Amino acid sequence: MAPSNEPIAAGSMLDVQRRLLLWADRTGRGLARVEYSSEFSRQQILQSLKSDLAERDITLTVIELPTQRTAPEVVQFLLKTLANVPDGVISVSGFSSAFQAHSHVEDSLRIVNFNREALTAFPLRQIWWMTPVLLQTSLHAMPDLHGWFSPQLTLAQPTSREDSSTSRELITRTQLRNSNFDDARQRSRQLLVQLEAAQSAGATDIDLATTYLLPALESLAEVGAQKEVRHLTTQYEELLNLLENLDAVTEKNKQHSNIANSLNSLARLYYLQGLYDRAKPLFIKALEINRTELGDRHPDTATSLNNLALLYESQGRYGAAEPLYVQALEISKAELGDRHPNTATSLNNLALLYESQGRYGEAEPLLVQALEIRKTELGDRHPDTATSLNDLAGLYKSQGRYGEAEPLYVQALEIYKAELGDRHPDAATSLNNLAGLYKSQGRYGEAEPLYVQALEISKAELGDRHPDTAGSLFNLAALYHQTQRHQQALSYIQQALDIYRPTLGSEHPTTQSAHSWLLTIQQAIDSSQ
Questions:
Q1: 308 φ, ψ (degrees, to nearest 5)
Q2: Residues 220, 233 share a domain
Q3: By Cβ atoms counted within 10 A, which residue in 8, 262, 297, 352 is the most buried?
Q4: pLDDT grade, residue 319 (50/70/90)?
Q5: CA–CA separation, 19 vs 42, rounded Å?
Q6: Residues of 306-336 as b/e, b for ≥16 C-beta within 10 angstroms?
Q7: How many domains in the chain?
Q8: CA distances from 134 to 42, 176, 210, 505, 518 (A)
Q9: Residue 241 Cα distances to 27, 125, 215, angstroms
Q10: Which of 174, 170, 205 lies closest to 191, judged by CA?
Q11: Residue-level pLDDT at 161
Q12: Strand-pair partners of 63
């Protein structure tokens, strides 16, 4: 680092870089903590620090924690990685997204704190990067470990007119617990402000897309704010297209982010919008990268297999989906264990595919096993537990076991409302499910208001052209037909078809089913005239 007579502002990039260099240019082990809000600024500091340390023959090793893992998995990953680094300085980041969504982050951090002696036993100097909200949470959850951080630095960010002191505390309740619309919108706005600042400072397009834009979109998608996701997707379409059309993972872009994860995230955003044709090549590309970079048996490869299988299933390609689901389940069991939540997800996915094919005897034990895992590992009130309750209830309904299905549907709806909010798309799905059960029993007066409420939520949060909105329209059409309100039924089924045809395609089983209902309803109208 070149000497300068210019004063260095406390908390500036140059100040943090200088302090880290002074600290890192020592022998022995130690812990440093840096609070930061801008990923772009953090990357710039790391690049400069790496260059300065190289002049001193000191190696800087960068560790990015895996995403959406249990706390023991995060600790084991970090311990294993640290054990393979012979000496030098370590940069550790990714704590905000490391732990599983909807998990109790305080409990996860307490597990990290419990392993503090093992984590600091290596003859290394470690820099831990923490976002503001995560830092505040961790101060209470792992006070012992925080006592070992020296220095404790803060990377200050210039405050724009849109970046108030309250929004600076930004972050990541949406990453830590993705159930609050206001938090998600606040985080998304701040990330977009940071995107503009990074763009002005010369950040690469890949940095802009992966560090700021995708997290902003995911924050909104994870709470079901699909209307805002579509708006931003359109607004930043050019930037997303650059990532979408990335031909290969080069050393240059690999250093910025995990490209496979970014492609998976973008594909998932398109999938949630019903844009299956745009999602498919991205899921395939992400799977190819994970297989090449991580191997055929890595949990991230299993995630990619699950994603692609889910897309195929949504397109009615059951034969293409099944072997991918089976392979993903085998990897999860072998690499993560029989009781891991990811294994439960794979069990659930495969079971739902079997149910779609009428293979109820094969589906039920898988759904029961998934529910047991989620209750044990995640808790009785977790949204994933609610999903298992919903799915098992759906299987019982398909078999006419209405008495067993109803309490499960009711319990799932209560969890979604309490944990995600009354207006979340998952709550709408749960309303549709319970209404469908009532309709099957001829309880039309109880079913209709639930269907109407589900349609209102889908239109408001997903938009008028989303397949889930079409599903609500389809459900109401069937109800109106069965209650002899054929003109209303015709209007709703036509609206549903107008959505299904461009989003799912004319050959999709759901589209064909809706078309059959259209003919049935039209025939009923003709017969009554």
A1: -65, -40
A2: yes
A3: 262
A4: very high
A5: 14
A6: bbbbbbbbbbbebeebbebbebbbebbbeeb
A7: 3
A8: 16, 9, 20, 44, 52
A9: 46, 40, 16
A10: 170
A11: 29
A12: 92
Q: Which amino acid is at 232?
A: L
Range(s) of the domain holding residue 349: 296-358
CATH number at residue 76: 3.40.50.300
**Mean pLDDT across the stretch 278-300?**
89
What amino acid is encoded at 49 in this protein? L
Which residues are bridge partners to 152 per DSSP? 33
Residues 6+ apart with CB under 8 A from 501: 511
Name the average pLDDT for the chain: 83
Distances (CA, A) of 68 to 347, 380, 456: 18, 20, 32
State both tokens at 292.
């090449």
Do 130 and 120 share a domain, yes or no?
A: yes
Residue 284 pLDDT more than 60? yes
Q: Specify which residues 397 forms β-bridges with.
A: none
The candidate with the shortest Cα–Cα distance to 176, out of 124, 107, 239, 117, is: 107
165, 157 Cβ separation under 8 angstroms? no
- Within-domain flag for 368: no
Domain boundary among 343, 358, 373: 358
